[in-house]
Amino acid sequence: MHDWKEAQQALHMTQAELARVSRLTTMGELAASIAHEVNQPLTAVINNSSACLRLLAADNLQPEVLRRVLEEIVADGTRASAVVARIRGFIKKEPAEKNKLDINGVIQEVLTLADRELYENRVLLERHLMESLPPVLADRVQMQQVLLNLIMNGIEALTPVIDRPRLLWVQSRVDESGDVQVAVRDSGTGLSSEAHRLFTPFFTTKANGMGMGLSISRSLVENHGGRLWAAPNSPHGAVFYFTLPESGGSPS
Amino acid sequence: MTGAPVVFVVDDDPSVRSSLKFLLSTVGLQVESFDSADSFLHKKPPDVPSCLVLDVRLPGLSGLDFQRELAARKIRTPIVFLTGHGDIPMSVRAMKAGAVEFLTKPFRDQDLLDAVRIALERDRGRREQEKEITDLQRRFDSLTAREQQVIAMLVSGMLNKQIAAQLGTAESTVKVQRSRAMEKMHAESLVDLVRMVEKVQGPSEKAS
User: Fold this and answer.
1) How confident is chain A (252 residues) per 10-residue block, as mean pLDDT?
2) Interface of chain B against chain A, CB under 8 Å?
3) Is B33 within a domain?
4) Which end of chain A, N or C, is more open, meaning fewer C-beta atoms within 10 Å of its C-beta?
5) Where in the sequence is the domain holding B174, given as residue range(s)?
6) How many domains does chain B have?
């Protein structure tokens, strides 16, 4: 009995650690776009400030010019800090903090983060988000991670596609049992014959994948009382579903 | 030739665009900005020295594609590239294709201003050279067919006597045609004339 408990504990710790690693991997993948997002406003701030210093040195800085430029500097600083605030949620290493969440809001946040990736890989995105979904009881950051993982996987499955549009659908709805269901559907390369192993830790079909993304995503969803599964999409690609019980349901 | 130079800024980020415009204006430069390569290409370039300050990562046509497109259209405006991340292979490609500078955002204001100054100087030099060649070409075209023939023979190293013999005319006639041609070309000497013809036609083979 004791051994079993210890083993269980060890497993949990490994999973937590792996989750952290995968979070960092995802961060690495996104680092370039995030750096770009922060760098742009910083560049504008530095240019504007340098220009003001030059005019000041030449005793040629008009108050109206200064006011306009300072307003721009404030706006750009705010923009940079908004990007930082958005990514901070991804870096935090905290236990699940379950709150009433609008999953559509989480979807929008993650799509904003994945925006560059979608654009650079020429992926066309379609959202079908059901309005006035019931809230779910979930950890915002963990749900962001699950969604980001599914979306990045979708993008990767689409990049080899050259003979048809690269389509990615993100859908939300209430399913037959009243749970909130999210689907990430792509017109990509589809599931391999080893699809039954998708959720096995360290199973990967990617050249530089760790094979942890889906297994961690599944355990995160299951920790919320939900389910995560995959199915082939017709005529091409794959679709990943996950469900979360609505917050009014059983106490967690 | 002496019109005020223009700097074209192409960046999809409005904040960066307006800050670049402001910074360049502090040294008295005139700036026109564009949000994409396409909108720049739709504009007819003015007849003054100019350069481009270009973000590598543009929507639509990327910075490097844009550089290639300009080369294909024989638009030789010098380019200062800006990039969000120090991508070395990309910068090597850009520099090999003739970029003036490759700056990583954010950059020191002086570095940008120096790069722009060099780019404008380069463009000014290029425009002067091109103007000289067009002028020479126009002068060369104003020569008669026979004068052009005589010049070609002179440039190839033949003597008046040899030219006269080959054309079947008197040496004095060749002399007259030669001096008339030199006058029309504004050539001070035979060496000067050879240099001009080479500029218009490319180096000729010397007769030994």
Assistant:
1) 68 56 53 74 96 94 94 93 70 68 91 83 93 91 87 89 93 92 93 71 58 76 88 91 79 40
2) 13, 15-16, 18-20, 22-23, 25-27, 57, 59, 84-85, 105-109
3) yes
4) N
5) 142-201
6) 2
CB A72 within 8 A of CB B19: yes
Sign of CA dihedral B71, B77, B82, B88: positive
Would residue B1 count as lying in a domain? Answer: no
pLDDT of residue A182: 97
Chain A residues at the B interface, defined by Cβ less than 8 Å, are 32, 35-36, 39-48, 50-51, 54-55, 58, 69, 72, 75-76, 79, 119
What is the structure's pLDDT at A9?
72
- Any domain includes B160: yes
* Closest residue, chain B, to A42 (C-alpha): B106
Average confidence (pLDDT) per 10 residues, chain B, 208 residues:
85 93 96 91 87 85 85 90 76 84 92 97 94 92 92 90 92 93 91 88 56
Is B128 found in the same domain as B110? Answer: yes
Token couple for A2: 């004791």
Question: What pLDDT score does A58 carry?
Answer: 93
Does the beta-carbon distance from B26 to A39 stay under 8 Å? no
For residue B15, give the nearest of A32, A44, A119 by CB distance. A44
Instruction: Say which CATH number the domain at B34 has.
Output: 3.40.50.2300
From A172, A183, A173, A166, select the one nearest A228 (Cα to Cα). A183
Quick one: which of A237, A33, A241 has its CA closest to A155?
Answer: A237
Q: What is the dihedral of CA B148, B149, B150, B153, to 10 degrees?
A: 120
A92: DSSP letter: -
Interface size A-B, in CB pairs within 8 Å, comes to 64
Among candidates A32, A44, A55 on the partner chain, residue whose Cβ is nearest the Cβ of B19:
A44
Are B19 and A47 in contact (CB < 8 Å)?
A: yes
Q: Under an 8 A CB cutoff, do B19 and A48 touch?
A: yes
**pLDDT score at B131:** 92
Q: What domains can be seen in chain A, in order of their start residue?
A: 2-91 (1.10.287), 99-244 (3.30.565.10)
Q: Based on the fold, state whether residues B27 and B128 are members of the same structural domain.
A: yes
* Closest among A159, A147, A169, A165 to A121, alpha carbons compared: A159
A178 and A141 in contact (C-beta within 8 Å)? Answer: no
